[in-house]
Fold each of these.
Amino acid sequence: GENVEQHPSTLSVQEGDSAVIKCTYSDSASNYFPWYKQELGKGPQLIIDIRSNVGEKKDQRIAVTLNKTAKHFSLHITETQPEDSAVYFCAATVNTNAGKSTFGDGTTLTVKP
Amino acid sequence: SQTIHQWPATLVQPVGSPLSLECTVEGTSNPNLYWYRQAAGRGLQLLFYSVGIGQISSEVPQNLSASRPQDRQFILSSKKLLLSDSGFYLCAWNYQQNTEAFFGQGTRLTVV
């Protein structure tokens, strides 16, 4: 089955700096890669996603890149703000598996003011 | 618009007691439904998923079971809770195709 590894497990940055979180996956049939943000005591929420026919996608301060050959994808947050502090999860999805995703173990991002 | 409801938000249960967590989705039909468990500081472990009424797939062997009695209702159950069942349980749904998952607010279960 699919295996997703996520690094780092914790990340601390100064407000205004950039943050990068990286994930690798094992199943070359994966074709949908969402990123979720989870605030304390709440369920995860999608912040950005990318499909396998695209190499990069950007939404304001957030961008995701995908390298299908190397089977890795990354989340980039620029100009970080304290409210970006949360746990971030990457996921990989194979379309044939009823749309279910395999999640990484999460990255706890702390943005220091 | 679509919404997902999950309750209760917190639950403290003694070892050996039964469990029933309920999740309902509004505003959509025939969704995929999921139950995840999240241990403290860890990622999301998929427990069960369902592509239709009465269709349940289990991802990991465990002390829990799931049922889908109606199209938009997903129930997580146990006959006898173990200490190791403690955790944060999340219900989620998505469309049949390859799309984002929408999560409920979660249930914090503590087995004492």
Amino acid sequence: GAVVSQHPSRVICKSGTSVKIECRSLDFQATTMFWYRQFPKQSLMLMATSNEGSKATYEQGVEKDKFLINHASLTLSTLTVTSAHPEDSSFYICSAREDKQTQYFGPGTRLLVL
Amino acid sequence: AQSVSQHNHHVILSEAASLELGCNYSYGGTVNLFWYVQYPGQHLQLLLKYFSGDPLVKGIKGFEAEFIKSKFSFNLRKPSVQWSDTAEYFCAVNAAGGYQKVTFGIGTKLQVIP
């Protein structure tokens, strides 16, 4: 089946620094990738839709200047959390769309901002 | 906009018991429906999906789900659970036609006792 990887799996950073998370589709090309955030005991919250070669579409309430998304190729999308603060600590999950509707998920990245 | 509700947040079963996890969605039009599973320490995996056709969908590992349009439901079933089915299960929906974003339910934690 389709495989999506994320790197790093976990990261600890100081408040004010920026963190980049990579999402790769390993065995298929994904014109569209998605970034989600998962809070404890809550469902996945879609942050943005990332289309290869164009600007990402952000969901309401998600700051595009804080969560920078780049989808430079058909197999790679990156999420950069700029000037991270403790409230940005969360579990970030990416997914990649293979066919018209099915998404395949990465293993997630646990971010802890001190 | 669509929404998804999963009624049981935590289910505990003994091995060999039958499983039914409820999922109801709210949307006036045609939908695509998904069940994802997240095993402990692993990422989300697609269990099964419904786009059209036979409303009884069979997925991996003996799971099946039935789409009942009149009830706006897509319940997940398995006749006999195993300890290895211990995981969190997420129901998801998106509007059919073109690509529409997927909305996830809050998830149901299933614990199977040997």
